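Checklist before submission:
- one chain only
- standard amino acids only
- sequence pasted in full

Submission:
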Amino acid sequence: MDSLPARLSVIVLLTLVVIYLRCVQHALTHVSEAKLIKHAGEEAKEKISLLFSRAKQINDTVRKLILTAEIAAAVVVACYPPEWVASPVLRIVIGELILLLVLSCFGIYFPRRITIRYSERIVLANASIMLGLRWLLFPISAVLKKLSDLVAFFFGIHPNDVEDEVTEDEIRMLVDVGSQSGAIDPEEKEMIHNIFELDDTQIYDIMTHRTDIEILWSAESVEEWETKISETNHSIYPVCGESVDDIVGVLNSRDFYRMLRNNSVTDVQEILRAPTFVPETVKADDLFRQMQQTKNHFVVVLDEYGGLSGIITMSDLLEEIVGTLANEYDETEEEEIVPLGENRWRLLGSADLEQVAEELKLELPCEEYNTFAGLVLAELGSIPEDGTTLSFEAYGMQIDVLRIEEHRIEEVEVLLLNQKAEAEETETDENIVRAES
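Returned file contents:
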């Protein structure tokens, strides 16, 4: 060890050990067990299953071996520092810095590059070696684990409580990183985020409101029912008695047409199904699971007073995850938010206020109102007459109400005042510059 070649040989050997162990560690972490088993032979499948069932212990063993090799290399450099430096302390510092550079380049970044392309081959080639090392070093690992648990216990940490937990925020972050790198499509990213948001969404925010429901009345004739069903083309209808809050049943259009085909029009009450009621405060994910279990895809939403608040279907819940589900029979829906240019927008009163705030880049009271019509009515302080038009300013917007039907704000046009002022100021400055030139 006194000669320079001998010392360099030991350091190179230890660096190669670190490279090898890092390659195995990265490969075992990033490779898919299912993918390996799919392409492996019958003998290799058993070994792969055993390897991944012991993956945590093997990773611990590999980490300990890497640490041992790095410490050994550092000790060699400290005991035999470069002789071309005069100061003994400076010799050690320079030697360790050189070793750190070598281990960083060849012991961290280089193995990652290798495992990106050859992770499956590395795992298959070294499965037996890793299982053997785990078996040989298991006693040492067990003793070290017990010692670390004892130290943790003295600091008031129970060993069983120290577990790695993956939080929702961490998963969202991984999805965002995967989307930026191209591993996850933008549509997939949006769906994953939507799934997480289901448990924070109340069904009140996604249901069809009572004013938009097509209702069948028990006092109506079968012919009237047939006309309404053929015109509206829905699958299921709530049937009401004396008032909209008196829901006597739910009609499936298939049952109705089956009844007509069989000429049994006197049995109209018998084909009604019992409605399923839920409060409007139920979370969307809880209702989704409930619908799955009961195989019921249509529920009636009640308010706190027991009155009809709205209806919600399985399709409504699925649309919160995957987006709009339309078929060839659906009528083309009018866009709720349409840019008109020059800081102008056309909005439907039913437009979601959060989407409006995001699209127009404004701070709006989204916690207080669900729709843009709700914001307009709150600012007006009264219900305007049908057919009237009016204009006012609020929240940095000039709001022109264009259409009011059945006391509902149906359509408005919005002009962003701040951006308009900035545009006019910019135009004035440009005119001044042209005049001076």
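Reviewer check: The mean pLDDT is 80.
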